[in-house]
Amino acid sequence: MLETVQYAPTRGRYKVYIIDEAHMLSTSSFNALLKTLEEPPPRVVFILATTEPHRIPATIQSRCQRHDFRLLGVAEIASRLREIVEAERVTADTGAITVLAQAAGGSLRDAQSLLDQAIACLGTALETAAVAELLGLVGGQVLAEAAAAILGKNAAAALRVVDDLARHGHDLRQFTQELCGHFRDLAVLKVCAEPGTLLEASRVEMAVCRSQAADVSLPELELMIACLQQAETEMRRATQPRLILEMGLIRLAEIRHVPTVQTILDQLAALEERLAAGQPAAPHPSPLPLFDRP
Fold first, then answer.
1. DSSP state letters, 66-81
2. What is the pLDDT of residues 54-65, one digit of tens each?
3. Which pLDDT score is estimated for 293?
4. CA–CA gap between residue 115 and residue 103 (Å, rounded)
5. pTM (global) more than 0.70
6. Which of 151, 158, 142 is nearest to 250 (CA)?
7. Could you tell me the sign of the dihedral formed by the alpha carbons of 231, 234, 235, 241, in that order?
8. Which region, left, alpha or beta, applies to residue 278 given φ > 0 means left and ψ of -120 to 50 means alpha?
9. How many other CB atoms sit within 10 Å of the CB of residue 116?
10. DSSP alpha helices (H): ranges in 88-154?
11. 21-50, pLDDT tens digit by residue?
12. Do 219 and 149 meet the contact criterion of CB atoms below 8 Å apart?
């Protein structure tokens, strides 16, 4: 490239060199490129694209104009996908477009690739359930059912959800990540009355999310998210990932049986008041259980 850069363009006014994943260049390559960047030939433009700008040497960055591109929101990606399906005469319901936009993770290029994949596999009629199954995603109703089982202290129901997913060949790690994301959505609702775009990637109905958020505390959600993240990490290298997930869900259900710090503090304050007033403590105080006893 450096040998041919000195020649004038044969077509067009400029020669444009696009170096994708520029951070992967070796030190010697960067050093060779540096001299050309210091004194670039006329009508030559270099574009260095990277997802890790911190790995580009400072000597290179100092000779470049930096432009940071942001991730697109779900609504922006969905709008563009609707234009594409209309131009291609493809029938796609709103839920299918939303699922594709959410799965893209902010990348329009990935969203278009997923749309191409969906059209190739499902034809010109895209439905929400079929697209979600194609992408290996868990349905919103399944996430709501699993969360309801945990919040209802029903570990058996949570295990039945896992069993149903396993029998249908779903990726249990993917389910763990999505359930963690659902609990994140509940935490957002606890602190934001009007979440706006913070919950645009949620696949569970907003009414269900609000109902579940009202039934759980922030400390409990924090523990649940931490537990799911730990389970997902262990599942990566476990020979029996289903076992790890099942034990994690049992712990999640039991978290709701553990008395909160505020409950313990209130009981201690009540005890101090009784002692200060000269009243004896309860003759047979019941211990604070870590779990419900039969």
1. --PPPPPPHHHHHHHH
2. 999 999 999 999
3. 42
4. 10
5. no
6. 158
7. negative
8. left
9. 12
10. 94-103, 108-122, 128-134, 140-151
11. 999 999 999 998 998 888 888 889 999 999
12. no
